Task: inverse folding
């Protein structure tokens, strides 16, 4: 095992060497970094050219210059890595380390949501193969698969952000939205409920009418201006989701799972009141993350308290329910600061931004304000990335589960008399996830450099933007820095995918 | 309850026998074709794609070659991408001034004359006919798609086949080479070509993209060859004295055809999105030539004033990519031998009818 990993790492470095050599020379031959200067009318043109030549060592021919660059990288072995300097004279390492967090913030939520949503819908779609849900989801995933990300970004800006902002400032729902939103909602709900044609139309009609009514009602009580859930809805939603989680892991007729989930929600309801009294200025990200971990642990312990058997499953139910309850509590808190946030001078009544990663005018030190600001800026790019990458996961999860469901051991499990839930969750799903983990590991490694279009559309100054500008200004050192980091991560992701694959599937032997 | 179970069982048995009867006495190719033609989405997409290709290339004509040595067959559309027409001004639905609004009217209830008019997709703000621009862009996309599909498909299949069949050292070297190509971002290739060969038209771009787009396919084909070469029929062929060439082309390749064709369709739809994305960020097709990507990036800011400049290129990208994806899905279903189709009431009725006819005869 160790020998295999060692060999793979060594090969990865050889590959990295080869591809960086290729890219360096291709870029160096393709574009002349002095071209822009040579065409300029600056008085000290000759001096500027000389200075840039000396700074970037342009008098050395590209293949040799590559090794000068490599020498800086090799400094990592003596603890002094040097990515060189960009055209503007700044350290490449500094530029990149400023860009990485921005990109991470952009892609993390989008990817996890896409994976979660994509796999659940793919699994549902496979379990009910050839149902209306399956056909609808197949069509939707193909559609999103064929969408260019820059195209959907413009639509999201226009119809989601500008449309919602207009609605907030005018206060009335335009007829198009009033009809379209309930119809889409009803179509999705009815596809999920399924059943025969009659039942489909009944659920479609019910969902359409009730959601239209709820929308008008919420608008009439000014809920969109002053939203909130209140303790009652927080408890209701958390309990509903908690019971679902318990049902999926232990079976819907299992009482203990339900009790565990409900007792966690009850504790959440008790904490709700003191939590709401904590001033926003006391909080920050590390505290919130720490509280999240503590919440999950306490939830797990409560689940364990109920356990006479199945300790692991109950711990999991408790922890997941605790996190869900906490998320609803946070959502409620964010909704409470919504109104003052929207009407503050920095926002001016138009809360959904179409560009940039944060509002520079906002000066509040209240944690909830900052969190709301960050989340709202994340909304559009996250939706864009999510919609497109979710489609791939739906397809993969569906076909992977369908393949597993045809296996002999699934028939054996059914023949033993196990319930369909146990067959799917315990036997089929776990095996179907194996090929998906490889895909996920591979995708995660490509994220850092992969969002360049989204970044440039929404004006985020992340890795993608740095990369694009370095390509168009022939800033070779900067470009190589980004390239080196992204391809290094990609190779490591590849290796990680192989290792997880063999860890999950004992039939696969390493090194063969 | 018991009655219902019995009925379900009988239904399943019937479905099974219908499936058996349908496949009896057909060759692999016939089976695949039959299953493919039954895939409604794939058939609609195929008809649409053929129609759209014919439409685009007859309307816009064919323009090949570089600026110095052009090769042109004119199409039936009377404007080209370089014509500057007189900009028309009009009134929009809400009374606002519109510049170069589309003249196409297909709504019989609008009270205006039906027809496509002088500029069916409208004009941009300096008077280019947008129909000509969009058609040119869509042509570029289709050409990129075909070239990338051909080059990438060829290289991927050949390298994957060699790697999977011969294994050992050759496999190791070829797969590490594949890893090397995978790590090179497409945008670098695009930028290199854009800067060096940008004014040569879309062909060099497509060619180079093809040279770098085969990696996924090669891996899949290799995997398929690795399992297939261990099968009994390959041993049988070898014992019978077949050469490597014969085994590869006559015995293994036909069995791997499903994987190859399906991944080539994925490659095709990916190529369209790739070319438009590259052109969108300015590294693909260079001005004055146009691509669907450059059209969107040029006119996205005028969405409020003239949304048609944004909708039409998007419509062509999506509809072409979507139909290629559906064709791929149909092919995947058709090539999968374990594929069980949903037996509908119509099938059962047809089977009963056939049975009656057989009994009567």
Result:
């Amino acid at each position: 095992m160790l020998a295999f990993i060692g060999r793979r790492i060594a090969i990865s470095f050889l590959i990295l060497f080869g591809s960086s050599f290729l890219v360096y020379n291709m870029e160096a031959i393709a574009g002349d970094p002095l071209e822009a200067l040579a065409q300029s009318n600056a008085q000290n043109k000759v001096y500027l050219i000389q200075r840039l030549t000396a700074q970037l060592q342009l008098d050395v021919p590209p293949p040799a210059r590559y090794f000068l660059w490599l020498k800086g990288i090799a400094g990592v072995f003596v603890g002094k890595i040097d990515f060189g300097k960009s055209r503007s004279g700044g350290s490449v390492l500094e530029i990149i380390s400023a860009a990485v967090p921005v990109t991470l913030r952009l892609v993390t939520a989008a990817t996890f949501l896409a994976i979660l949503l994509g796999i659940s819908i793919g699994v549902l779609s496979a379990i009910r193969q050839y149902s209306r849900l399956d056909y609808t989801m197949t069509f939707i995933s193909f559609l999103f698969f064929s969408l260019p990300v820059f195209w959907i970004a413009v639509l999201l800006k226009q119809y989601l952000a500008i449309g919602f902002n207009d609605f907030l400032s005018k206060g009335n729902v335009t007829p198009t939205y009033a009809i379209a939103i309930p119809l889409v909602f009803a179509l999705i709900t009815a596809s999920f409920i399924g059943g025969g044609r009659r039942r489909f139309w009944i659920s479609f009609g019910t969902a359409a009418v009730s959601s239209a009514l709820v929308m008008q009602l919420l608008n009439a009580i000014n809920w969109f201006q002053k939203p909130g859930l209140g303790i009652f809805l927080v408890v209701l939603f958390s309990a509903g989701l908690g019971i679902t989680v318990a049902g999926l892991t232990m079976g819907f007729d299992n009482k203990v799972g339900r009790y565990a989930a409900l007792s966690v929600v009850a504790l959440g309801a008790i904490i709700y009141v003191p939590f709401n009294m904590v001033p926003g200025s006391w909080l920050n990200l590390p505290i919130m993350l720490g509280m999240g971990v503590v919440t999950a642990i306490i939830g797990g312990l409560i689940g364990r308290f109920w356990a006479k058997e199945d300790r692991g499953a109950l711990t999991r139910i408790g922890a997941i329910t605790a996190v869900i309850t906490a998320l609803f509590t946070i959502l409620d808190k964010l909704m409470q600061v919504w109104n003052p946030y929207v009407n503050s001078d920095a926002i001016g009544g138009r809360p959904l931004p179409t560009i940039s990663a944060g509002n520079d005018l906002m000066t509040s030190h209240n944690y909830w304000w900052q969190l709301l600001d960050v989340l709202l800026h994340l909304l559009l790019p996250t939706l864009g990335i999510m919609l497109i990458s979710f489609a791939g996961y739906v397809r993969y999860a569906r076909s992977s589960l369908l393949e597993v469901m045809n296996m002999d051991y699934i028939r054996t499990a059914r023949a033993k008399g196990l319930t369909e839930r146990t067959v799917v969750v315990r036997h089929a799903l776990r095996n179907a996830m194996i090929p998906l983990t490889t895909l996920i590991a591979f995708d995660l490694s490509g994220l850092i450099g992969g969002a360049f279009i989204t970044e440039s559309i929404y004006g985020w100054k992340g890795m993608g933007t740095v990369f694009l500008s370095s390509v168009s200004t022939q800033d070779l050192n900067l470009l190589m820095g980004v390239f080196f980091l992204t391809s290094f991560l990609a190779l490591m992701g590849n290796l990680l995918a192989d290792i997880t694959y063999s860890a999950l599937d004992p039939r696969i032997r390493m090194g063969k | 309850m018991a009655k219902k179970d019995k009925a379900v069982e009988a239904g399943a048995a019937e479905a099974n026998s219908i499936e058996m009867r349908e496949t009896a006495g057909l060759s692999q190719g016939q089976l695949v074709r039959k299953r493919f033609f039954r895939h409604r989405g794939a058939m609609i997409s195929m008809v649409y794609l053929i129609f759209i290709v014919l439409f685009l290339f007859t309307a816009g004509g064919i323009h090949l070659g570089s600026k110095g040595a052009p090769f042109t067959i004119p199409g039936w559309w009377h404007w080209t991408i370089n014509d500057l027409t007189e900009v028309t001004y009009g009134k929009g639905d809400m009374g606002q001034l519109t510049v170069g609004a589309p003249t196409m009217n297909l709504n019989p209830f609008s009270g205006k004359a039906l027809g496509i008019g002088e500029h069916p997709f409208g004009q941009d703000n300096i008077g280019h006919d947008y129909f000509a621009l969009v058609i040119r862009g869509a042509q570029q996309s289709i050409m990129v798609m075909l070239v990338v599909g051909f080059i990438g498909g060829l290289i991927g299949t050949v390298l994957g086949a060699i790697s999977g069949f011969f294994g050992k050292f050759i496999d190791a070297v070829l797969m590490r080479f594949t890893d090397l190509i995978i790590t090179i971002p497409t945008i670098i290739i695009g930028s290199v070509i854009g800067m060096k060969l940008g004014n040569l038209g879309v062909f060099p771009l497509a060619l180079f993209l093809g040279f770098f787009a085969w990696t996924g396919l090669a891996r899949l084909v290799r995997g398929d060859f690795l399992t297939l070469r261990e099968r009994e029929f390959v041993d049988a062929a070898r014992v019978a004295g077949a050469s490597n060439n014969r085994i590869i082309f006559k015995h293994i390749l036909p069995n791997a055809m499903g994987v190859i064709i399906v991944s080539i369709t994925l490659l095709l739809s990916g190529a369209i999105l790739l070319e438009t994305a590259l052109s969108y960020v300015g590294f693909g097709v260079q001005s004055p030539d146009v691509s669907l990507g450059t059209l969107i990036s040029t006119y996205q800011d005028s969405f409020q004033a003239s949304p048609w400049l944004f909708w039409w290129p998007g419509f062509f990208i999506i509809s072409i990519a979507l139909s290629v994806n559906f064709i791929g899905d149909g092919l995947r279903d058709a090539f999968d031998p374990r594929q069980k189709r949903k037996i509908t009431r119509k099938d059962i009725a047809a089977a009963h009818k056939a049975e009656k006819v057989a009994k009567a005869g």
